[in-house]
Amino acid sequence: MEETEKFYVQHGFTVTQRIGKFNGEFQSFNPPLQWDDFRAEKILFRIIELKKGKVNISIGFGKKVIFDHLGYFVTVEDVEKICERAENLNWKINKGDRRTFISTPYQFRIELQTNRDALEDVKSSLELKSIELTTKKPGLENDLLYLFQLDTTNIKTNTGNELHLNTVEMNDISIGLKDPNNVFLR
Predict the structure, then answer these.
(1) Can you tell me the distance from the alpha carbon of 27 to that of 143, in angstroms, rounded to the nearest whole number?
(2) Hey, is 132 helix, strand or coil?
C-alpha cells in the first residue's frame, strides 16, 4: 500500500485519510504522519484515500489486488432515481449515511456519493475522462446507460477471466505509466 500511495503522491494526489487496525482497534494515521512514523508497527490498513480535483482514489489491504468500486458524485435526488433503476435490475442496494453502494453482477460495486468533501475540488477540471475494465460477462455499458440515463461511452469493457481495471484516463493530467496495481494511467 505504501508503494501505491507513493506513486499517486508523486503524481500530484494528496493523502487525505489513512485508517488502519492497530492493537485490535481502528485508528487514523493521517498526514502529517508519514510512513516512517509507523512503518515498524504491525498495522493492517483498511483504507488509504487520495484526492486530486474530482478524482478520489481509495486503496485498501487485501489478499490480492482487486477493483472494488467505481464512485459517482451525484445529487441526493439522483440517488433515489438511480436506486430505483438498480432495483429494476435486481441489484442489491446498501444505503448509508454518507454514501450508497450498489452491488453489480460484474463483481464490483457502484458508489453514489453526495458529499462534496469526498472530492478535493468540485469545481476542478481534473476528472475521470475514461476507464477500461475487463469483466467476466458482457453488458456493463448498457446497464450503466440504463442506470444513470447518461452517456457512458467513457467506460469501455472487454470480457475476460477476471475483473480488472485496465486503464484510467483523466482530464488535465498525463502520466503514461502503470501504477503498482498494474493499472495504466494515460
Answers:
(1) 38
(2) strand
- Entry pTM: 0.87
**Grid cell in block for residue 119:** 472530492
Cα gap 96→167, rounded to integer Å: 29
C-alpha cell at 68: 472494488
Which are the contacts of 185, defined by CB distance < 8 A and separation ≥ 6? 11, 167, 168, 169, 170, 175, 176, 177, 178, 179
Outline where the chain has alpha helix (H).
Answer: 2-10, 76-88, 140-148
Per-residue pLDDT of 3-39, as tens digits, reads 999 999 999 999 999 999 999 999 999 999 999 999 9
Question: Do residues 8 and 48 lie in contact, with contact meaning Cβ atoms separated by under 8 Å?
Answer: no
Which cell is 39 given? 512503518
Q: Is 164 helix (H, G, I), strand (E, B) or coil?
A: strand
Domain boundaries, the chain: 1-63
Residue among 66, 59, 61, 166 nearest 107 (CA)? 66
Cis ω for the linkage preceding 32 (within 30 of 0): yes
What is the separation, in whole angstroms, between the first and last Cα of the chain? 21
Residue 55, C-alpha cell as written in the block: 478524482
3-state DSSP call for residue 45? strand
